Amino acid sequence: MNSPRTTLYRDKHNGKIMGVCAGIADYTGVNVFWVRLVALVLAFSMGWPIFAYFVAGFLLNKKPPYLYRDENEQKYWQGVRQSPRRTAREIKASFRDIDRRLAAVEAHYVSSNPRLTAEIERLR
Question: What is the distance between the alpha carbons of residues 17 and 2, in angstroms, rounded to a whole number?
Answer without folding.
Answer: 27
